[in-house]
């Protein structure tokens, strides 16, 4: 058995050596692409957002820019730094401070024709003598006075930023020039400004009722004259009522010293107003064309021969129209550009005691110093004649010199036309009535003649 098995093994080995054909080997199957499993959505669990830890506090600097109601732009720089404990810093005045620097650019006055033309290009046309007048013009010393007073007002209000002079009121004067005609020697003060609205004044002789509702209203103006009638001023009675109330309050117990002083000042001021209203008549802003000049220009001994006075004649130029007027009132020391409500409404019908006629520095005020006459009831036709005369003495004018209507005089009612005499009526043609045919006359029996024997 072992021998037969050995022969069989030897035979198999021999077949292998002589290369018996083998069956073909099939190629390997392709490798399938990997399948990406679909993301599994958790059934109920929602991931909780992780809040990052706050960054550590580091002192810094920050700059903000803002504007307060009076038009001043301010820059605030916030700076923080490390200190000690809160208990100690609370008691240290230097640990929590603010530093304020008010910077203001003071303007220079215009004096060249090209500069003035940029403000109102009609000026050379309206005032043909202006180019020659500007050749010898000088800047009024009052211009510097005005801006010195404005800066002083800012300095006085530094502890109350809300009381600082507004941007509008600081830059309210473009120029202030002294002009003089070489031939006639007529002087004129040339002011370029805006136009605020003045609502002051009362005159019971001409205007029995005035509104007086403006917050800055005063019953008087600097231009005044003796009353002509016994008609009482309607503003006296309410002021007398206030006097009685203030006098009663002044006698009350427990009144503070500050309130007593306030009452005494109000009493003195109101008594003076009542005395003036019983004695004088004043311009009425709603009816009379006048301008207001700053106290620095009228009250100070500045300007020499060019110093204006209350009652001086003047003209107001806006656009292409020239308005005759007078200097009728004196305002605050450092503010320029104010006219009566009458002029303001003529320039801009929307003008009120609270709304300016114009915010732009486009109004020219030409004042003729030394021309004031004795104050009297306004004569608007005369004012126009005077202004026309003085304009003629500085080279004349072109365009419209406005003619004011006197609003205080009752308007004459239109004449009632006489009833027309009716024309005689033409009789209608009549149809002749047919004549009746007379009946034949019946002879009456003859009266027998008397018998003659």
Q: Rounded to an integer, what's the Rg over CA atoms?
A: 51 Å
Can you give the helix content as a percent range? 25-40%
Strand content is: 15-25%
Strand order of the largest sheet: 5-11-8-10-9-12
Shape: globular
Query: What does the average pLDDT come to?
Result: 83
The run of helices and strands is: HEEHHHHEHHEEEHHEEHEEEHEHE
Supply the helix-strand structural class. Answer: alpha+beta
The counted number of beta strands is: 13
Number of helices: 12
End-to-end Cα distance, whole Å, is: 244 Å
Uncertain runs: 1-23, 436-453
Describe the structure.
The chain is α+β, with helices and mostly antiparallel strands. It has helices at 2-17, 86-90, 113-119, 123-126, 130-135, 141-156, 167-170, 236-250, 257-279, 295-298, 341-347, 380-392, and strands spanning 61-67, 73-79, 138-139, 173-180, 187-198, 224-226, 280-282, 290-294, 313-318, 321-331, 338-340, 358-367, 400-401. Strand 9 (313-318) and strand 10 (321-331) form a beta hairpin. Mean pLDDT is 83; it is low at 1-23 and 436-453.
């Amino acid at each position: 058995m072992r021998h037969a098995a050995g022969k069989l093994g030897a035979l198999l080995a021999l077949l292998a050596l002589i290369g018996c054909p083998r069956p073909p080997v099939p190629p390997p199957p392709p490798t399938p692409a990997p399948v990406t499993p679909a993301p599994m959505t958790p059934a109920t669990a929602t991931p909780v957002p992780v809040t990052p830890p706050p960054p550590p506090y580091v002192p810094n600097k920050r700059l903000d820019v803002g504007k307060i109601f009076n038009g001043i732009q301010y820059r605030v720089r916030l700076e923080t730094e490390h200190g000690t404990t809160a208990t100690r810093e609370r008691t240290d005045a230097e640990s929590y401070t603010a530093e304020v620097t008010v910077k203001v650019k003071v303007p220079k006055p215009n004096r060249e024709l090209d500069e003035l033309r940029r403000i109102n290009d009609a000026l050379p046309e309206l005032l043909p003598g202006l180019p020659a007048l500007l050749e010898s013009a000088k800047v009024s010393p009052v211009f510097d006075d005005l801006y010195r007073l404005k800066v002083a007002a800012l300095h006085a209000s530094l502890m109350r930023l809300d009381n600082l002079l507004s941007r509008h009121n600081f830059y309210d004067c473009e120029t202030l020039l002294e002009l003089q005609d070489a031939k006639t020697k007529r002087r004129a003060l040339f002011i370029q400004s805006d136009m605020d609205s003045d609502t002051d004044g009362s005159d019971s002789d001409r205007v029995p009722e005035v509104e007086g509702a403006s917050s800055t209203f005063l019953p008087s103006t600097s231009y005044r004259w003796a009353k002509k009638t016994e008609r009482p001023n309607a503003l006296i009675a309410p002021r007398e009522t206030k006097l009685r109330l203030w006098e009663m309050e002044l006698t009350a117990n427990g009144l503070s010293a500050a309130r007593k002083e306030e009452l005494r000042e109000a009493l003195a001021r109101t008594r003076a107003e009542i005395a003036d209203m019983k004695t004088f008549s004043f311009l009425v802003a709603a009816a009379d064309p006048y301008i207001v000049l700053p106290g620095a220009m009228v009250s100070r001994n500045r300007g020499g021969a060019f110093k204006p006075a209350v009652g001086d004649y003047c003209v107001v130029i806006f656009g292409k129209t020239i308005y005759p007027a007078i200097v009728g009132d004196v305002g605050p020391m450092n503010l320029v550009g104010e006219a009566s409500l009458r002029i303001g409404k003529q320039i801009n019908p929307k003008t009120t005691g609270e709304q300016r006629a114009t915010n732009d520095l486009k109004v020219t005020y030409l004042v003729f110093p030394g021309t004031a006459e004795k104050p009297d009831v306004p004569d608007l036709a005369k004012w126009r004649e005077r202004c026309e005369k003085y304009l003629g003495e500085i080279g004349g004018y072109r365009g419209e010199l406005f003619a004011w209507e006197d609003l205080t005089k009752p308007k004459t009612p239109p004449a009632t036309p006489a009833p027309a005499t009716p024309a005689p009526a033409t009789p209608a043609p009549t149809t002749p009535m047919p004549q009746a045919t007379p009946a034949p006359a019946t002879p009456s029996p003859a009266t027998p003649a008397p018998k003659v024997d």
